[in-house]
Specification:
The chain has one domain: Up-down Bundle (Growth Hormone, Chain: A). 78% of the residues lie in helices and 0% in strands. It is mainly alpha-helical and 487 residues long. It starts with 5 loop residues before the first helix and ends in a 10-residue tail after the last helix.
Amino acid sequence: MKNLHWYDHLAINSYWLGINIASGILTPILMPALVLMFMPVEMKNTYLANLRVIGLSVAMLFQPIAGFWSDRSTAKMGRRRPFIIWGAILNVIFLFIIGSSPSFMGADKGLILGVSAAYLVLTIGTILMQFSSNLGQAAVQGLMPDVVPENQRGRSSGYKSLLELLPAALVALFVGRMVDKGLIWPVIGIIMAGFIITMLITVIFVKEEPFKQKPTGKVLEPILRILALTAIFVGVTRAAIWLVSSSGKLLTNAGVTLNTQIILIGVAGLIAMAGSIIFGVYFGAQVGIGKDARQHMSFIWWVINRLLFLAAVGSIQGFALYFLRDVMHDPNPATTTSILMAIVAVFLMLSAVIGGYVADRVGKKRLVALAAVIAAIGALLLLFARSMPLLLVSGAIIGLGTGLFFAANWALGTKLVPPAEAGKYLGISNLAGAGAGIVGAGIGGPMADSFNALQPGLGYLVIFAIYAGLFLISILTLSKVKVPAEA
């Protein structure tokens, strides 16, 4: 069995750096800033949530299809690299659309459902980029099971986590300042360069064996199952959003006191988020996988665990800029958000690399549970953060827990997927990546705006408390994940 060197692990996972340069800039900094420019300030959380829900619904649908497609590829370059190449090229093209959105400011309002022309262009660019980005991401997810020996996947997951978290430390330090100054195109250029450079590293230095066996089995049925999976999950989530929104309006109209509303709607929000994740993934993944689902229940519960955690941490990150603006009253929230992300990333990277090695020795499930406890403590500290030192401490604790989670959880997942269908199954796991934003932001954004209207800044405290609850609930799902003792 080949023993891979550190530079092999870096090359195998290099495209994750490009992907996360994009997500590390777009999600916490650029998208919130653009939405704030394009839409009414009092509804910014809702419109940001809508943008993420629309884009991530596309990602949830397309990534498993792209993974299934790459699993069946017989290209001479290998199953994965051709998709990474085309994904990077198309990303650059669609980033031009996102970058051009500010030039539509001042155009006629109310084009569709009352949104501005600039917001509409931003939405179109986001949707298109979800197709291209997930084309490459689905392929790179299959690289590790393809080329990394099983006993080295914890280590390789550590390098993957390092490259996922590195952008916050190296890029975001000056990206926030650029966004605050309105320098959108240079920021877009950084994202483009990240995709192209990391794609070239993967294509040049990773060696794949071509898949010579002619693909067999049905094609249409798996695609229809993935479509049904997406419809089930998004439908369950949107129903949960409607229930929370309706209950909030009912309580307000009934004259219920603010403290009682916080408790009742907060609990309803937690139940809605956790419930839509558990039921949406449980039934959606079974439809997506098909008749083999019962043989892979541990994989399904792993996706649920991953989604509960990522819904919390991703949403905290996504609403950080608005929290700094509305609660901390920061005059340069994009700059401060990038500094916060950079400091947090230091703890993320340290714990991720260490966690990758530790996970191979002490057990991945134990480390995932510990990560959730640590992250929950950090999220609860956010409720008391009114100064930068306490905010940074809270962020660092969340970063520590998230780094451990990234290293251990992904290594755990690679042991639960059939090697011959790794792209398809890890594509289905995008229920966790895309679904995190759909649930966390989709429900949390409107809740934040609703409570902020009653008391400025209150909405962020309510949703941050809910996210802490999601961290803790994620621990309970690990009992359903059955893996060999060494995992």
